[in-house]
Amino acid sequence: MTSPSDLKKSALEHIWFHVTPPQTLRAEHGMMLFKEGKGCYLTDVDDNVYLDAFSGGAFVTSIGHGREEVGQAYAEQAAKLAYVTPYNFAAEPTVALAEKLSELAPGDLNRVFFTSGGSEAVETAMKIAKQYHWFNGEQKRTKVISRRGSYHGSTFYAMSITGASHEYNNKIFSPLVPGCLQVPSHNCYRCEYNLSYPSCNVLCVEMIEKMILHEGPETIAAIIAEPIPSAASIYLPVDEYLPRLREIADKYGILLIIDEVINGFGRTGKMFACEHWGVTPDIMTVAKGLTSGYAPMGAAIAGPKITERFESRGGRESGLNHVISFGGHAASAAAALKNIEIIETENMVQNSADMGAYLLEGLQELKKYPIVGDVRGLGLLAAVELVRDKKTRAPFLPEDQMPARFNGHLMDLGVLARTYQVVEFGPPLCAGKTEIEKIVDVTEQTVKWFCDEVGIH
Ligand SMILES: Cc1ncc(COP(=O)(O)O)c(C=O)c1O
Questions:
Q1: What is the pLDDT of residues 52-71, one digit of tens each?
Q2: Would you call 200 exposed, middle or buried from its count of C-beta atoms within 10 A (0-12, 13-18, 19+)?
Q3: Kind of pairing, strands 415-416 and 49-52?
Q4: Per the count of CB atoms within 10 A, which of 11, 159, 162, 389 is most buried?
Q5: Do 283 and 362 sit in the same domain of this protein?
Q6: Domain assignment present for 20
Q7: 72-89 pLDDT, tens per residue?
Q8: Distance between CA atoms of residues 304 and 366, nearest Å
């Protein structure tokens, strides 16, 4: 049998890991090799057990690890019929899943374009939006507005509208897709206008209207927004933000795309995060929690406003010139259906709301420490923002190596989370009080330890 250390060596040699630089992978707490998972826990090849406070490392395994019935649903369907093309074939579970998603999705969203993951769902939404306007005779509507700080994926369009790491992407992968306009984020803790709510009058959303007018409304195809940006930080919009965004989009005939790739399927304590603010998008993108990672799958979901345009057109163009071979994959659809059944029958959306409130309450206590600048979250999506100077909100310096050291300490104490400038938590939606208390306790211990390490008291 291959030893754990040989396996790790082989992994480093043969797997091109995503994003993480090789030096980081080779450093302590770098690359990790797991052999199994159960519920909220992951076991590595050296038999260390970790509390997975980040759902598989990317807010994915919403129902928790090791749910055999999902594996069985996948296996049974794969044995019976794994795949047929999404061109004009469908398998039974794919139909059932499309129907289920139409039932769950907000408002009248009822037509599902299946993809293999979130980036493709976003690409799909972009193309649907452009073709919708094209059908309307508005071919000049080619631009898309997104927010700085948001993440929408790694494929070219998704990357081009992604606000996080825009400088890096623009430098290395330039030219990005033209017509991608970015507006300030709605991160109140780091307001780009140095204003405070409510006296700011939510300038960040009003500036979107100004940008639309500046560019010419007839040139804007869509606005895309995650309700709670999650991949690069986690911050909530103020209550007026999303309804106002909907209003602005409607006023200028622009489509509103809500990206629920992380926020969706109960992560924020509602099935979809946009429900917190009563907003129905024109297109919604989903992935991750759709299958909880038991199979790769994503989707862009639209409603009659859009599909009727396509239907009424006739001819080749009414089909959307866009195909993802694995879209609607039969076995993945079976896994997704079982995953959603578990979310529903085990009340995981409500558990996310309840345990999320408990987590937030616990983490709020950490504000008493000098390096904890802000604590925020909704459902089982929470962030602790660490700062070098609480008064000025100055972040840690590169030489402090805060993210790696802080995250490493969390791991040493048995908790897997993700730390940039912000420590992010997104445990499986089945987490109970034991898991939440451990997350809070270990974070507190790590905050105290890091205060000592950097001499801030
Ligand atoms: C909001 C959002 N959209 C899209 C994506 C891209 O999804 P995927 O990694 O499945 O391509 C992500 C991934 O983290 C995301 O957070």
A1: 999 999 999 999 999 999 99
A2: middle
A3: parallel
A4: 162
A5: no
A6: no
A7: 999 999 999 999 999 999
A8: 47
Q: Whose C-alpha lies nearest to ligand 1, atom 8?
A: 118
Q: What are the structure tokens assigned to 109, written together?
A: 């969203």
Do 37 and 107 lie in one domain? The reply is no
Q: What is the CA radius of gyration of the chain?
A: 22
Q: Which of 104, 145, 431, 122 is nearest to 287 (CA)?
A: 122
- Site to probe by mutation for ligand 1, drawn from 19, 124, 165, 288 as the one with most ligand atoms within 8 Å of Cβ, is 288
Q: How far is the CA of 75 from the centre of ligand 1 (A)?
A: 26
Q: What is the pLDDT of residues 401-455, one digit of tens each?
A: 999 999 999 999 999 999 999 999 999 999 999 999 999 999 999 999 999 999 9
Tell me if 26 is assigned to some domain.
no
- 259 in contact with ligand 1, CB cutoff 6 A: yes
Q: Are 269 and 353 in contact (CB under 8 A)?
A: yes
- Is residue 240 located within the same domain as residue 163? yes
CB 104 within 8 A of CB 286: no
> Is the distance from CB of 404 to CB of 24 less than 8 angstroms?
yes
Domain with residue 378: its CATH number is: 3.90.1150.10
CB environment 17-37: b (16+ within 10 A), e (fewer): eeeeeeeeeeeeebebebeeb
Task: Assign 313 a pLDDT band (cuts: 50, 70, 90).
Answer: confident
228 C-alpha to ligand 1 centroid (Å):
13
263-276 as b/e: b if 16+ CB within 10 A: bbbbbbbbbbbbbb
Pairing mode of beta strands 180-183, 143-147? parallel
Instruction: Collect all residues with Cβ–Cβ distance below 8 Å to 450 and sequence separation of at least 6.
Output: 371, 386, 402, 405, 406, 409
Q: Which two tokens stand for residue 31?
A: 């690359």
